Amino acid sequence: MMDLGVEYGVNSMPTLIGFGGRRAERVTDRVVDTRLLTNEVSLAAWLDDEMKKGDPFPGAGGGSSGGLLSRIFG
After folding, report:
1. Where are the domains of the chain?
2. pLDDT, tens digit, for every residue of 16-61?
3. Residues 57, 24: contact at Cβ < 8 Å?
4. Which residue, 16, 17, 28, 65, has fewest beta-carbon neighbours within 10 Å?
């Protein structure tokens, strides 16, 4: 998997990368801040923002109300 790290410019661990587009072909954001990654509220907000950016096509998911975690866990 080292080739993926090189391809996406991963310089440190942990690294969380958001992808967007119809087939996740573009990087939309990158997080290496361990404070954000360990804070459940901040991480949930980041995930919700990424889901809104994810797919620009109507009806393809992302951007619906309630947030990602509430859609997953009810």
Report:
1. 2-60
2. 888 876 666 778 888 888 888 888 998 888 888 888 775 555 554 4
3. no
4. 65
Contact between 62 and 54 (Cβ < 8 Å): yes
Residue 7 confidence (pLDDT): 85
Token pair listed for 4: 């993926």
Q: 29 near 18, Cβ under 8 Å?
A: yes
For residues 11 and 9, what is the distance between their CA atoms, to the nearest angstrom?
Answer: 6
Residue with the two structure tokens 């993926």: 4
What gap in Å lies between CA 30 and CA 18, rounded to an integer?
6
- Omega before 14 cis (within 30°)? yes
* Residue 16 vs residues 36, 43, 51, 60: alpha-carbon distances, Å: 10, 10, 14, 23
